[in-house]
Amino acid sequence: MTFRAVVFAYHQVGVRCLQVLLARGVEVALVVTHHDNPAENIWFDSVAALAAEHRLPTIMPTEANSSELSAAVRAANPDFIFSFYYRHMLSPELLALARHGAFNMHGSLLPKYRGRVPVNWAILHGETETGATLHEMTAKPDAGAIVAQTAVPILPDDTATQVFDKVTVAAEQTLWNSLPALLSGKAPRLPNILANGSYFGGRKPEDGRINWRQPAQTIYNLIRAVAPPYPGAFTEIEGKRLVIARARLAPSEPLSGANLPLGLQIVDNTLFGLCGDGRAIAIHELQHEGRLISLAEFAQLTHT
């Protein structure tokens, strides 16, 4: 038996999970995705391009729950609705159009890190593990019963991009492994106990501003969590915004000869960020206006 699905998808997880549905023989009757925002750094693959390659009907509505969208989904006559990193909440009325249920892929181990940008938040909070969760969609975000989860490690020096790559594979594995039972109506529904988890909203580029009075580990987590292609953790010197693109925690002992002010300092021909707990972060790549700069350029920038 062939099942029909309407797929709301965007970003890398959207691409990979759409490919899983096609590989498993699901008939994708309609793809709903987003127009790329020209103001955003688009570093991920395109759901629209993948849908075009497979000649799948595709729409890009500006409103998530318009009457036109509802009509298009109803006309597609779906057995299932799937949401894979689609950026808008879907109304209960829309979800009800799927005869056998509506399911979302979320980039955390629910109920932890419900809401926006879960990978970035997990790194910011120093987590050592995250993953992907397939769950039922409800009116409340990331609150429905859990079908399946796959965990991945967050290593001490992993950036958000590296963790996101792992989560993308985890999402693909989760969907691939659970889809046969889901299609046959035999998939589990595990409790998603929200009181045991957490919810976080979106982040803005300004949230990457470094407070050098904080401990080194906290600052390093921020650097990892928003490292390019995300907007980056930054500090300002004489009105110039400097983005720390790549760094490592320095050895635990304070820098010899310290008595230096907090923030960016050159010591023994190496650039460090001196932190509030006396520890330091070794800065390996520093950007100004989107371009990597050398130590000499840093010195010149900060003394002009």
UniProtKB/TrEMBL annotation:
GO cellular component: cytosol
InterPro entries on file: Formyl_trans_C, Formyl_transf_N, Formyl_transf_N_sf, Formyl_transferase-like_C_sf
Keyword Transferase: yes
Keywords assigned by UniProt, alphabetized: Transferase
Domain (Formyl transferase C-terminal): residue spans on this chain: 204-298
Record field: transmembrane: none
Pfam families: Formyl_trans_C (PF02911), Formyl_trans_N (PF00551)
Signal sequence range: none
One of the record's GO molecular function terms: methionyl-tRNA formyltransferase activity
Domain Formyl transferase N-terminal: 25-175
Keyword Transferase: yes
Protein name per Swiss-Prot or TrEMBL: Uridine 5''-diphospho--(4-deoxy-4-formamido-l-arabinose)synthase(Formyltransferase)protein
Species name: Mycoavidus cysteinexigens
